[in-house]
Design brief:
This protein has about 250 residues and is α/β, with parallel strands linked by helices. The relative contact order is 0.09. The chain has eight helices and 15 strands. The chain is elongated, with a radius of gyration of 21 Å. Helix 2 crosses helix 3. The strands form four sheets. Strands 2-1-3-4-5 form a five-stranded parallel β-sheet, with helices on both faces.
């Protein structure tokens, strides 16, 4: 039996996965969790082989669950998401598979086939997942954004700056402007702090793109980036600017 945990903040979504699993006799659903903290506790207590893990949950999302458990201790993961950009991030993390909500019986059956094929294959599959998750959680590599109606991968070293755009973050990279369905605060938390800094409530910059700083009279001011963009910095977020000025 494949010991399974279902994690999603939406009861209907949890029910959909549970009902779909009922058609497969070799899965034992150990329980459900409705938020990230509950998921962390359940994984630690129940020790499942497999977790159907919702990506977007309040307070602690699916990637936060992985970080809290620790990559080495994490069971195999099938990510569940309503957003295709998150599905690409799941692929980046070398998850066993992902389900894009709402899913149909045929798609679910393909996921089950992959689970059955890989659940007993030992450390090789798990090592691939762990390496991918380390890369993703460490903020290294790439972000997944949307442009021209499709998901696109953006290398971190391509990014000039990132701005707030309502419920989205807009990534400015090499003349491209791409959207990420994530708040600026959430994105800031998983970017490498040595390379990126928030300089305003609505802007994050890559520090090695700064070419000029113009201090204001009240602790604020403006910066110019190598790409030509000029941005305001506020007194609240001026610490990285002070670091630049003392180089």
């Amino acid at each position: 039996m494949i010991r399974t945990l279902i994690v999603d903040d939406e009861p209907l979504a949890r029910r959909a996965v549970r009902q779909s699993l009922a058609g497969f006799g070799d899965f034992d659903v150990l329980g459900e969790a409705g938020h990230g903290a509950e998921a962390v506790a359940a994984i630690g207590t129940l020790r499942p082989d497999l977790v159907f893990l919702d990506v977007q949950m309040p307070e602690m999302d699916g990637f936060g669950v992985i970080e809290a458990i620790g990559v080495d201790a994490m069971p195999l993961v099938v990510f569940v998401t309503a957003f295709d950009a998150y599905a690409v991030r799941a692929f980046e993390a070398e998850a066993l598979d992902y389900l894009l909500k709402p899913f149909d019986d045929q798609r679910f059956a393909r996921v089950i086939e992959r689970v059955r094929r890989h659940i007993g294959t030992g450390d090789g599959q798990r090592d691939g997942q762990r390496d991918g998750m380390r890369s993703l959680l460490g903020g290294q590599g790439r972000l997944v954004a949307r442009g021209n109606g499709a998901a696109q991968l953006v290398r971190l070293d391509e990014i000039d700056w990132i701005s707030a755009a309502g419920d989205y973050a807009e990534v400015h990279a090499g003349g491209r402007s791409l959207l990420i369905h994530e708040s600026l605060t959430s994105l800031e938390a998983r970017l490498p702090h040595a390379a990126f800094a928030r300089i305003h409530r609505a802007a994050i910059v890559r520090l090695d793109r700064l070419v000029e700083v113009r201090p204001g009279t009240h602790g604020d001011g403006s910066v110019r980036l190598a790409c030509g963009a000029e941005l305001r910095f506020s007194r609240r977020y001026r610490e990285p600017i002070d670091g630049y000025l003392t180089r």
